[in-house]
């Protein structure tokens, strides 16, 4: 795997959803590095990518309440265990579960395995609330997929939680997850 600065020069074979991410980042003047790779839809697969990008790829979970009326995108360190009860208490939403791939596609234009903060650019009606573990905000950079799981990006944390979220009209709610019941 190689590390590149910015978008691919040849967009042949790239999905529209990926190209739209590069278009938006470029229009906002956000610098990023990129690596291309085989399908990386598990945290284990992301560990090798972490080494190339020299950044921790976030675990991104797409969640909903029992009634399927509230939807959440949770960004957390990949090595931290996720405990539903711990998060539920902090956001005041009981019975969180994983949202269906249909909702993921409808709101974020993302398929399972490629969930990323970049998908919020497709959430025009602000149906998805972004939750971020405080440890993600401590790093200088964040790693994420550009709405596909065959490329990964390294972007300054300040740019993601500043310029990018401002442009896509979302805010982040910081949570503290320790992985305990």
TrEMBL record:
This is Prolyl-tRNA deacylase ProX. CDD domains: PrdX_deacylase. PANTHER family: PROLYL-TRNA SYNTHETASE ASSOCIATED DOMAIN-CONTAINING PROTEIN 1-RELATED, YBAK DOMAIN-CONTAINING PROTEIN. Residues 37-160 form the YbaK/aminoacyl-tRNA synthetase-associated domain. Belongs to the PRORSD1 family. One of its GO terms (molecular function) is aminoacyl-tRNA deacylase activity.
């Amino acid at each position: 795997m190689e590390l590149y600065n910015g978008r691919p020069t040849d967009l042949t074979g790239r999905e529209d959803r990926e190209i739209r991410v590069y278009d938006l980042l470029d229009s906002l003047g956000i610098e990023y590095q990129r690596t291309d790779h085989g399908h990386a839809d598990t945290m284990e697969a992301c560990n090798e990518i972490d080494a190339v990008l020299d950044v921790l790829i976030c675990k991104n979970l797409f969640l909903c309440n029992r009634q399927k009326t509230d939807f959440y995108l949770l960004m957390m360190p990949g090595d931290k265990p996720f405990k539903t009860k711990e998060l539920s208490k902090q956001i005041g939403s009981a019975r969180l579960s994983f949202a269906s791939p249909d909702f993921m596609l409808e709101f974020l234009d993302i398929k399972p395995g490629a969930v990323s903060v970049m998908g919020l650019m497709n959430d025009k009606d602000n149906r998805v609330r972004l939750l971020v573990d405080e440890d993600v905000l401590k790093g200088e950079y964040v790693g994420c997929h550009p709405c596909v799981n065959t490329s990964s990006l390294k972007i300054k944390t300040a740019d993601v939680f500043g310029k990018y979220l401002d442009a896509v009209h979302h805010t982040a709610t910081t949570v503290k997850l320790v992985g305990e019941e």
